[in-house]
């Protein structure tokens, strides 16, 4: 980080939050500010892939909600961007607190974001281990426009609690957790 700063390269700090470090998030933000970061992105554990092995360490609903409120309050105190990642309901909390964000939606999987792995595998997000195409075989533009999975993700036809939530347009629900 010091080398990036010295070279004039902007950087951001990423933190994955779990039950044993969630009380340290504000201090980590303060450290990011002190070190000259332009942003602190706080990742909420999605128990898929390697994260499935540590699911018991992920936050439960009450801790999740409390931390998101704390992050939004901290955002009002610091000049760098704070972004809860894989916690799309931060958009609801920001709205309830009267805060504007630069984001139009919480979950961006398949709508304005995807992953292209080193072997060309395209996934809606890092936590959805689901290949929707491969850029070594099909042009990305075709995958992006024609993938059945991307088309489903771009609808508002959600099931369960997300389907009836009045904030679904700004939250988007975590597609990895909900598996559509």
Describe this structure in words.
Strand 4 (115-116) and strand 5 form a beta hairpin. The chain is α/β, with parallel strands linked by helices. It is 36% helix and 13% strand. It is built from 9 helices and 6 strands. A 3-stranded parallel sheet has the order 1-2-3, with helices on one face. A 3-stranded antiparallel sheet has the order 4-5-6, with no helix packed on it. The radius of gyration is 17 Å and the shape is globular.
Mean pLDDT metric: 89
Uncertain residue segments: none
Helical proportion, percent range: 25-40%
In DSSP terms, counting alpha (H) and pi (I) runs of 4 or more, how many helices? 9
Q: What proportion of the residues form beta strands (DSSP E)?
A: 5-15%
Strand order of the largest sheet: 1-2-3
- Using only C-alpha atoms, the radius of gyration works out to 17 Å
The end-to-end span amounts to 37 Å
Elements, N to C (H/E): HEHEHEHEEEHHHHH
Judging from the principal axes of the Cα atoms, what is the shape? Answer: globular
Primary descriptors:
180 residues, alpha/beta, three-stranded antiparallel beta sheet, 9 helices, 36% helix, 13% strand
Break the fold down into its secondary structure elements and pairings.
Layout: H1 2-7, E1 12-17, H2 25-35, E2 39-44, H3 61-75, E3 81-85, H4 90-96, E4 115-116, E5 121-123, E6 133-134, H5 140-146, H6 148-153, H7 160-164, H8 168-171, H9 175-178
Parallel strand pairs: 1-2, 2-3
Antiparallel strand pairs: 4-5, 5-6
Give a short overview.
With 180 residues, the chain is of the alpha/beta class.
